[in-house]
Each structure stands twice: as structure tokens, then as C-alpha cells.
């Protein structure tokens, strides 16, 4: 039973991290695409890469933090 609770916490951590990372990545990617004057449709590709990369990193670290925290009982 405790194992299911831990898995649910880690899954929720990855989901929240992915959502926050995606939002931050989209804003940052848009800013960078405008700042560096990325031409035409390459802006969409650049913003997408930044969004997915940021979502993956945030999700990974928040999931890992949830896993580490899951083993502790207070």
C-alpha cells in the first residue's frame, strides 16, 4: 500500500514538473526566438524544442525530488 502511495507521489511530481517546465519553456522559447530574430516557421520549431526540453528537465528533477522525499517519514 505504501508503495502505491509513493508511485502516485512520483507520478504527480513528474506531471506537475512537466506542466511548469512546459509553461516556462514556452515563455522563454518565445522570448529567445524574438530576441535572436529566428526566421519564419523556424520560430515554431525553436519554441517547441525549448518547451519540450524544459518540460523534460523540470519533470525529471521534480519526480526525483518526490522519490527522495517519499522514503522519509516525519
From TrEMBL:
Localization in the cell: Membrane
Transmembrane segments: 12-31, 51-70
GO cellular component: a single term: TIM23 mitochondrial import inner membrane translocase complex
UniProt keyword terms in alphabetical order: Membrane, Transmembrane, Transmembrane helix
A Pfam cross-reference name: Romo1
Lineage top rank: taxon: Eukaryota
GO biological process, one term: protein import into mitochondrial matrix
Family: Belongs to the MGR2 family.
Name this protein carries in UniProt: Reactive oxygen species modulator 1-like protein
Species name: Carex littledalei
Amino acid at each position: 500500500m505504501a508503495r502505491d502511495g509513493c508511485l502516485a507521489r512520483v507520478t504527480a511530481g513528474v506531471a506537475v514538473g512537466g506542466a511548469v517546465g512546459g509553461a516556462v519553456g514556452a515563455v522563454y522559447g518565445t522570448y529567445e526566438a524574438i530576441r535572436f530574430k529566428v526566421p519564419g516557421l523556424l520560430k515554431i520549431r525553436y519554441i517547441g524544442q525549448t518547451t519540450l526540453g524544459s518540460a523534460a528537465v523540470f519533470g525529471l528533477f521534480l519526480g526525483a525530488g518526490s522519490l527522495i522525499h517519499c522514503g522519509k517519514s516525519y
